[in-house]
Amino acid sequence: MQRRKFLSHAGQTILSAAVFGDPGLASPQHIDTTPLPHRVGMSDVHQLDDAVRRLFVLERTHGGGVVLHLAEGLANWSHQVLRAQGTEAVQHALRSAVARLHGKVAWAAYDFGLPDKARHHLLVGLQLAREAGDPYVQAYLLNTSARVEMHNGTPDTALQLLQLGYTPALAARSSLLIALMECKIAGAYAKLGARDPVVRALATARESFDRVPHEESPSWLEFFFTRASLAGAEGVAWASLGEEERAINALTEALRKRGDESPLAQSFELAELGAAHLRNGDTNEGVRIGMKSLDLVGPLRSQRARDRLKPLHAAALRSGRQAADLTHRIALARRT
Question: Which InterPro entries does the UniProt record give (predicted)?
Fold first, then answer.
């Protein structure tokens, strides 16, 4: 837009008078698109990686609804950047980074309650990860796919995706990836009520995680999956099997290790922990912890956080009058 036109339009907007001339033609009819680089290097890949990491932090603080449109816009722009020139190594790294970005879009969509959008971006990401020859990203995206299906009530489909993801996880020779896959395999079997494979999977996950300090893993994977994540997944698996004491111990460990870094994950774990205490007969503690979860859920733009209140709601209803205030607050939270 020309400088004079901008000045006249600004004057009309602020002062409601044509103090800098007639703004009639000043309204923008066309906005130039952001120019794309003709050539990309590793510095461009690192910048994209940093942007994805910042989106992850934003999501775990505020929920997927805050991140979704931002991540989609960046993904659309990044696909155009894929047409830029670069060395073969840069092109592979760039495709891997854009695949992870699609994983972030999918994760935000999943968190916001849009599973079909999540599935679309996961498929796009898987194609890019295959082109990049990156088994880490392939396994991560299949793990995310399984979590989408698990949350939407199909643990058998989740298991199939996790078993599919085991192939690239093994190809990567990554104990961290194996731990990630195994803890989610445990969660799927727990939903199916199969205790023995849950015990085996959790043992393998712990053993694999213990080997992580002796290996090199991508920084984005270490940031995504931590010992707190493992303990939280373990607690949810035990809760699904009705083993409340084990669930309480694992979830307490997860919350202690996580600290205040992720209100979104904290809200899940507090809700699960409160429900476990209620089912275990400790109503006062269950209500106290459940209320803490609701304090976190309130400002989050996350449908998943509200969905994850279901076990807490069921346990509160069974606890009767002592948990009446908690039951009421959960009902209100799930309607918002």
Answer: TPR-like_helical_dom_sf (IPR011990)
| Per-domain boundaries in the chain | 8-14+42-130, 134-225, 227-335
Q: Is the pTM of this model over 0.70?
A: yes
Q: Which CATH number fits domain 227-335: 3.40.30.10, 3.10.20.30, 3.40.50.2300, 1.25.40.10?
A: 1.25.40.10
116-135 as b/e: b if 16+ CB within 10 A: ebbbebbebbbebbeebebb
pLDDT tens track for 188-247: 999 999 999 999 999 999 999 999 988 889 999 999 999 999 999 999 999 999 999 999
Q: How many CA atoms lie within 13 A of 90 on its CB side?
A: 17
